[in-house]
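Figure 2 data, in text form.
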Amino acid sequence: MSGMLETFRNAFKIPELRVKLVFTMIVILLYRLGASIPVPFVNSGMMSELMSSQGDTIFGYLNILSGNAFSQATLFALSISPYITASIVMQLLTIAIPALEKLQKSGEEGRKKITQITRYVTVLLGVITGYGYYITLLNGVMTEAGRQSFLTNTHWFSGIVIVTCYSAGSALIMWLGEKINENGIGNGISIILFANIISRVPSGVAAVVSDIVSYISGDRAPASGNVAGAVIFEIIRISIILAVALMIIAFVVFMSNAERRIPVQYSKRVVGRKMYGGQSTYLPMKVNMSGVMPIIFASSMVSIPITVISFMNRSASGVPSQVEQPILYFMYNLMGTRSAVYIILEFALIIAFSYFYIAISFNPLEVSNNLTKNGGSIPGIRQGKPTVAYITRILNKVVLIGGIFLGIVAVFPLIVNAVVSAFGVTSFGAIAFGGSSLLIVVGVALETTREIEAQMTMRHYKGFLE
């Protein structure tokens, strides 16, 4: 942590990097401002009340990614989800469609066209997702008085305004992310996602402090009636959350820097009067090659059943009635984030999606061909198919370790929550996606720090050469 702070402190001393860092901060500030702009015809207060009970569903996950903009139904409620989905779709289509694959490998111009197509897909998905969000707001929630809409005006024109605002907001987020890529520091979309998750911390801390102060001052009585016990419980709860967070952060930092190095030997070759090659190097294969994407995929998939249950629920309390809807009540408990089925299923899906993501993003045959073209080979392994088989075998082992690492990061907070709940503590707090949030935050912080260090090093080399 001290090294990271030292890197940022040194970066601010360099004029070029200081301008980039300030530009990035200004864009983040503008984004957070947009995330607070209300959309017309939406009752954001009712939506916030609903989201307080939707922490286990996919809506809770979208709310985390949007920095509470989803629950408040603001301009940036869709956050970066349309852009991430569009990027994933384009990655899959690039492999499935030969024309797109050729375009991807045709150099800078081809990549620019792929980027342009991704923008169009983002806008299209923004419109589709915005319409889906509008239908959710229109249908509302079941109350004791019947179903109540989240909209203050259900006229068709209000629907057009709402969908336009949300789709325009998703396109604007994409534009802000690209501006960070061009003139700022780090990956724009990752920086925005980082800011969204971090923005939830102050409100969470303020809520806990407010509870403790209200208990002590007597403005609010705890459910148990024991003020001292309630204050001690809040302190213990925060201590456990902080301890779990620090353990995950340390584990993520260690595993993010871990890699499997395959030795590579380049043969000597004479070009003109000079001799090239002959050196030994290595092919690095990071343990966490897929980043946080498998967790995003798995969390979204495993949250679908309970999200569907929440739509079918007729109870105003948010939990299906055991008497009126026994099947839904059983499924709600079976697929809740505190159940063993949910935890095991998410862990298995994370490992499966890790292999899937690497299969579409890493090609051992291409790596082998590049080594052969540059006169490189793996000691003790013949070139061609044996090299491909060797790289594939190593890759499968590395992906398995990386998948287990991601699975532990994702399910460890769930296990803590389930264990605490088993002792009858039901108000411990929703940390269903705490592991993935920490992984995103730590990963973005590490990558941004590396990029700053690389630019600082490059600047020193330029100064030396000049």
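Caption note: Confidence is low (pLDDT under 50) at residues 462-466.
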